[in-house]
C-alpha cells in the first residue's frame, strides 16, 4: 500500500509541476502566438572505420543509427575515410608566426595536466633546465615557462630537462612550468623559420672531406644593404651561419666587414672552426 501511495503521489506532483507550463501556453495562445510545429531531432554523428581499413567506405543516405531507443537516419550520402588528422597549424601572416598543436590534440588522447617549478635560475639561450619534478614529461612535449617562454623537450633525466631549442628569456627559480596540452590559436611556440641553403658543385663539393686542421673562408656580398642603417645591420648581425659535418650542423665564425663608403655592399666573412671536420657533401646553411 505504501508503494502504491508513493507512486500516485509522484504522478500528482509531476502533473502539478507541469501546470505553470500549460498556463503559459494557454496565455500565449490567447495572444495569438502559436507553438512551432514538431520537427525531427538532428544530431552530429561520427563514423569510425576499423583499424586497417585500406579504402573509403560509403555510408548511404538513410543509414540508421540508434541512440538508446531513438533511431536516427543519415540525411545524405557520405564517405567515411581512413585518413587521420596528423597535425594542425595556424598561421599569423602579419606577425610572421606559425603555431602547431600539441600531439595529444590531433591524436585525441587525454593528457594529465603537468605543473612544476624551476629548481634553479636560468639564463637566455640556456638549453638545459632543472625542474622540481619531471614525471610525466616525454620527448617532444612543449613546455610553457612563466607564461612567456615556449620550448620543446629533447630529453629527460631525473630533474634535468634538455631542450631542443634555447630559452628566449632568463627565469628565476620557482618560475611556473606547465606542459602545453591544448591548442590556443595565435599563441604558443613560434615554429616559423627562415633558412637559406647554399650549395655549389665545385666550391662546396668536398669529395674526400676536409680535416679539422683546415680552414674554409667564404665571403658573401649583400648588394643593396647598408651598414649605415641600424635596422639592416641588426638583421645581418642576427643571422646564423652553419655547415654540415656529416653528423650535425656546426656554427661558422662570422665577421661583418665594415666599409668606409656608404654605397659599398656589406660583406660577411665566414670561417670554419678548426675543431670540426667537414665530411663529404655540399650543403651549407
Helix content: 10-25%
Q: What is the succession of H and E elements?
A: HEEEEEEHEEEEEEEHEEEE
Q: Report the major sheet.
A: 6 strands, antiparallel
Total beta-strand segments: 17
Total helical segments: 3
Distance between the ends: 89 Å
Describe the structure.
This protein is an alpha+beta fold. Among the domains are: 89-179, Beta Barrel (Elongation Factor Tu (Ef-tu), domain 3), CATH 2.40.30; 194-285, no CATH class. Helices cover 15% and strands 25% of the residues. The protein is built from three helices and 17 strands. The protein has a six-stranded antiparallel beta sheet with strand order 7-12-9-10-11-8, with no helix packed on it. Strands 13-17-16 form a three-stranded antiparallel beta sheet, with no helix packed on it. It has a two-stranded antiparallel ribbon with strand order 1-4. Residues 280-285 have low confidence and may be disordered.
Which features would summarize this protein structure in a list?
single chain; 285 residues; alpha+beta; Elongation Factor Tu (Ef-tu), domain 3; 3 helices; elongated
Topology:
Elements lengths: L1 H29 L26 E3 L4 E4 L2 E4 L4 E3 L8 E4 L4 E4 L2 H5 L7 E3 L10 E3 L11 E4 L3 E9 L2 E4 L12 E4 L37 E6 L7 H9 L3 E3 L4 E3 L1 E5 L8 E6 L14
Antiparallel strand pairs: 1-4, 2-3, 5-6, 7-12, 8-11, 9-10, 9-12, 10-11, 13-17, 14-15, 16-17
